[in-house]
Structures are given as C-alpha cells and as structure tokens.
Amino acid sequence: MTDRQRQIWIDRTAVTFAWIAAIVFFFPIFWMVLTSFKTEGQAIQIPPLLIFEPTLENYLEIQERTNYTKFAINSVITAFGGTLLALLIAIPSAYSMAFNSTRRTKDVLMWMLSTKMLPAVGVMMPIYFLAQKFNLFDTRILLVIIYALMNLPIVMLILFNYFREIPKEILEASRMDGTSTFNEIRQIVLPLAWGGIASTALLSIILCWNEAFWSIVLTTTDASTLTAFVASFQAPEGLFWAKVSAVSTLACAPIVVFGWMAQKQLVQGLTFGAVK
Q1: How far apart, in whole angstroms, are the C-alpha atoms of residue 186 and residue 203?
Q2: Residue 236 has what pLDDT?
Q3: With contact defined as beta carbons under 8 Å apart, do 199 and 265 qualify?
Q4: Overall average pLDDT of the 81-101 stretch
Q5: In angstroms, what is the C-alpha Rg of the chain?
Q6: Torsion region of 58: left, alpha or beta (phi above 0 gives left; psi -120 to 50 gives alpha)
C-alpha cells in the first residue's frame, strides 16, 4: 500500500467514524421528535413503532394546559441577559489580563476555571437564602446574575485568548496618541476581536438556555424557563413519554435552530478561543 493509498484509507475511516458519531448523537433528538407525534399508547409500545399515523394532540394539549410563550420569553430574557452581563464583566477583565498580564495571570484564570468543577448543589443553600433575603426568588434578575456568574470563567478564558492575538503595537500606538483605556477598548479591541466576542456570546447563550438546575431550584412560576417547563411534566404516575417528548421538542427547537444558524461562529469560538 502506497502512502497515497494509506492516506486515503485513513481519511475514509475518519469520515466513517465521524458519520457514526453524528448519527449516535443525533438519534435521541430524532427519536424525541418522532415520539412527540405519537399517542401515549404508541409511545410505549414494544417493539417501537416507526410507521404510524402522526398526531398533534400532544402539542395541542400542551398549549391548552400551559403558557408556552411565557416560558420561552423567560428563557430568551435570562439567556441573553446572563450573556450580556457576563460579557460586560469579562471584556474589561480579559483586556486587563491580556495586555497588562503578570506572573499571576494564568493562575487566576486557572482558579476561575477550576470553580466550574464545584457541584452546583454545593452552593445551593447560600444562594437560596440570599435570594430569599433580597426578595429575588423567582425573578428573572436572579437567573440573569446566576447564569452570568456560572459562565463567567469560560467567557473570560475564551476572550483572554482572543485578545492576546491582537498586536500590542496597535495599542501602544493608540496610547501614544493619548487614547484613554475606555476608548482603546471601544475603538480598537472590540472591533478587532468582534468575531471572537460574537462566538463567545453564542456559546454562552446556549449554555444559559440549557441550564436546568438553577431554573428549577430558584423559580416557581413567574421566572420559570423552558427547562423548568419540561421538568413540570413529570407526574407521580410516571412519565407520559409522548407529552414529555413534545414539551422537550418545543424547548429544544429554538436553540437548535439558533445553533444551526450560528454553527460556523460556534466552531470557531470552541476551536480557537478554548484551545489556543
């Protein structure tokens, strides 16, 4: 076997494994959507039905029993609000660490990243009591703050690596012209790193949208998001698989479409900001 043939065989094998991995990851989503169009009897039938007459009764019942729009609006507000707050904190912080770094800079970044290893339940009670004390329980403001702090280490790390790619000579030239720090960030750093900031924001939005623990623990009705909406369909009798699948499809559809439209920016942010 020549080197050329060996390389072709390796490439084809890699593509095959990539397709297998994609099918494995996509299959649960496909099955969830398929089940959402079945009746409850069809959903639990063994062997599973692949050919059946689809029905919209699950979606109609969900619309009659609940206010899907309210949960969706809460998810949009908290996801985008948490991302915006995280960026407002992370951009000046990452700027300072990237262009005025010290020997402790990497230690600080690693410490921030290590906080992601802390189980959320470990800080649940303090946050719960603080929310009660300041009358923030079951409010969007509380979720925005929690989501921002939750994603801040990742946002900081990615932006730090993006900012480091900006040539320092450009900033030094602007400082010689008397540009203030605020204008330096606004007029130079942000335009040059706009692609990185956008991809970081997209990643943060997806992470906020998918967060379930804090949404369930810190909300009841007013500020509940779509993740809490899905959890509310659990019953003492067990799971109604067709209805749960319909609810999950409604919860996943907006962010799946959003992620698909922004997949190029997401891949760029994950491969560049998080690795370099």
Answers
A1: 22
A2: 58
A3: yes
A4: 90
A5: 23
A6: alpha
Say if pTM beats, i.e. exceeds, 0.85.
no
Structure confidence at residue 276 as a pLDDT band (50, 70, 90) = very low
Cα dist. 210→20, 70, 125, 207, 257 in Å?
25, 17, 22, 5, 14
- Reported as a pLDDT band with limits 50, 70 and 90, residue 269 is low
Cα dist. 199→80, 121, 189, 210, 254 in Å? 14, 29, 15, 17, 18
Instruction: Report cis status (omega within 30 of 0) of the bond before 47.
Output: yes
Closest by CA to 224, choosing from 132, 142, 135, is: 142
138 φ/ψ sector (left φ>0, alpha ψ -120 to 50, else beta)? left
CA dist 149 to 58, 63, 185, 204, 238, Å?
A: 36, 33, 22, 11, 35
Cβ-contact 228, 15 below 8 angstroms = no
Rounded Cα distance, 226 and 196, in Å: 28
- Pair 113, 54: CB distance under 8 Å: no
